[in-house]
Amino acid sequence: MSRPEVGIEPGQRIAILSAAVADGIAAGEVVDRPAAVVKELAENAIDAGAARIDVRVEAAGQGLIEVVDDGHGIRPVDLPVAFARHATSKLRALDDLRSIRTLGFRGEALASIAAVAEVEAVSRSRDGGGGFRVRIHGGELLTAEPAGCSAGTRLTVERLFFNTPARLKFLKQPATENAVISRLVGELALGNPTIAFSLEVDGRRVIETPGIGDLRATFAAVYDSETATAMLAVDESSVRGLISPPALHRGTRDHVVVLVNGRRIQHRNLVFAIEQAYRGLREPDRFPLAVLNVLVDPAEVDVNVHPTKREVRFRNEGAVFAALERACYRALRQSPLYELQASAGGPLLELRETAIVSSAPVTSHPPPQGEKGLDGPRLPPLTYVGQLLNGYLVAEAPDAVVLIDQHAAHERVLFDRILQRLEGGEPASQLLLIPHDLDLTPAQLAAFQQQASWLQVLGFEGELFGPHTIRLRAAPSDMPEGRVQRVLDLILTDLAGDRTPDRRLRETAALIACHSAVRFGDAMSPEAARQLLSSLALTAEPISCPHGRPTTLILPDDQLRRLFKRP
Fold first, then answer.
1. Rounded to whole angstroms, how far apart are CA atoms 449 and 143?
2. Contact 357, 535 (CB under 8 A)
3. How far is residue 161's CA from residue 168's CA, in Å, rounded to a whole number?
4. How far is CA 279 from CA 287, 544, 552, in A?
5. 529 vs 391, 399, 406, 523, CA distance in Å?
6. Whether residue 186 sits in one domain with residue 38
7. Domain co-membership, 176 together with 55
8. What is the pLDDT of residue 308?
9. Which of 221, 226, 312 lies closest to 263 in space, CA to CA?
10. In CATH, what number is assigned to the domain containing residue 75?
């Protein structure tokens, strides 16, 4: 149905918008910033079977965006049609959406870009024939003529948003827009390691990937070789990619790349599944690096949710969540221990990772649902030697010296013990010699009354003793009496913040373990130290405390010899 001309009869208030206005509105859904243009053009190149994609950007994308590929190209008869709205070569019938495997399919991207910019497209099909060029200005076709060019397509976008000044006002600083473009091209490269990507920003080469099909090599090109070497491989039937070991992390989730059948998506639940696999292995507010491709039957996922195609819906999201968490869990259980090694540039020590393992049995807390327990990083056999600085235990392992952070180690031991007890609903409390009277805020007092049964499971027992006071008679058996009030205050504050206990199980166990563990600076008897080392070796994750800090550092004999310049 063609769009009629705008016309309003006397007294009429509803009118059909002109094609120019309608296209401008539709373009805002697909093209909201320069990075969106890069995304759409690069994804078209990927769908075209390109082996190399070169992206060039000037003036943060407002001046120039150019994407050149060596794909199968576009025939002269098709090139002008490609810029019409809802024109696509990737599906013909609605049923095709159920098995769509291409990144694009809606037929909106080129029309949306052309509506808000000056666009030139030059292409020649691999099938033979000559090249062809079209020029479009603000959605209006200016020229369509033969042109000499190599096989493939070159799309040039200039004066982006020249006719939508309101959009220009909402763009960020050039450095920010360039950073978004760089991250996007990096993610496309990581999702397509068989394609060689390059990105040039204002004449400076920012990204250059080899395109040899090696994800680790592509990761090294986007990040660096050292980071790529440390990444752990995930190779399951439905999940493949790389994740970082616990010691390698960032301050934001920007470095977690999730793909579904090669399509980069934004999905909070799947990112959470990855983070769940790191429970007890990373510090709070630190996030892993990951590039994971989830392989799903196209009929089981709906990619036609949003014009940008970044949001998807799964028919069985729970199964996808479980598969992703389980795959990461397995890879992390092969994560190495922490080791101190001499740096390449001198005698200074660096924290590195090694694969020292032992055959000690694993008695861990339950793995993800459906997972049968895997041998993860284990401590080598340790012989206690002594204590240093009232904070570190020194032990001897086969061909290595081992330093143990006594607080972090005891925290790990208590955490596993407390978590097992809480999951089983088995309270373990001890009566206080002298009851403690605590003044609470109204919110804390309400939480104390509403969550009384949960607090009893934790080991706290008390009663009201005034308008804003409680009398505490019992506390968790592992907790020193002098720390009881502080821990209960923190727990009640947490509960008062609309935190449901069942979703805070691990956090509560970590809090109690942290405040119950031996302090850094406390002297330990040899018997207590030996017992701690024995208990640590039997925990689920002996290499780190529940907050992700290392418990153990290993200094191998060969590194000691190097430091002392011995043969």
1. 76
2. no
3. 6
4. 11, 11, 18
5. 11, 21, 8, 10
6. yes
7. yes
8. 60
9. 312
10. 3.30.565.10
Query: How far is CA 345 from each of CA 18, 339, 342, 564, rounded to the nearest angstrom?
Result: 68, 17, 8, 15
Distance in angstroms (rounded) separating the CA atoms of residues 492 and 445:
8
Give pLDDT tens digits for 28-63: 566 889 999 999 999 999 999 999 999 999 999 999
Kindly report, residue by residue over 154-197, the tens digit of the pLDDT: 999 999 999 888 888 888 899 999 999 999 999 999 999 999 99
Extract the tokens encoding 567: 């043969």
The pLDDT, as a whole number, for residue 90 is 61
- Identity at 521, one-letter amino acid code: G
Q: How far is it, in rounded angstroms, from Cα 188 to Cα 262?
A: 9
Domain count, the chain: 3
Residue 252 amino acid letter: T
Which pLDDT tens digit goes with each residue over 404-452?
999 989 999 999 888 888 887 777 778 888 888 888 888 888 888 888 8
Quick one: pLDDT band at residue 102, thresholds 50, 70, 90? low
Tens digits of residue pLDDT in 527-562: 999 999 999 988 878 888 887 778 888 888 887 888
| Partner residues linked to 554 by β-bridges | 339, 402
> Is 319 within the bounds of a domain?
yes
C-beta separation of 337 from 554 below 8 A: yes
User: What CA–CA distance (Å, rounded) separates 152 from 44?
Assistant: 12
How far apart are the C-alpha atoms of 131 and 147, rounded to whole Å?
5
Single-letter amino acid, residue 472: L
d(CA 68, CA 76): 17
Please provide the distance, in angstroms rounded to a whole number, between the alpha carbons at the two ends of the chain. Answer: 85
C-alpha 362/C-alpha 382 separation (Å) is 16
Q: For residues 546 and 409, what is the distance between their CA atoms, to the nearest angstrom?
A: 10
- Residue 315 contacts residue 301 (beta carbons within 8 Å): yes
Handedness of CA 458, 462, 464, 466 (dihedral sign): negative
pLDDT at 20: 63
The pLDDT tens digits for 56-94 are 999 999 999 999 999 999 999 999 988 887 777 665 566
Instruction: Map 385-404 to HEC letters.
Output: EEEECCCEEEEEECCEEEEE
DSSP secondary structure of 233-269: EEE-SSEEEEE--TT--BSSGGGEEEEETTEEE--HH
The structure tokens 């690096």 sit at 289
Longest dimension (CA), the chain: 100
**Rounded average pLDDT over 260-285:** 83
Count Cβ atoms below 10 Å from residue 160 Cβ, excluding itself.
Answer: 26
Same domain, yes or no: 314 and 451 = no
pLDDT value at residue 351: 46
Which structural domain range is residue 258 located in?
A: 231-332
Same domain, 110 and 178: yes
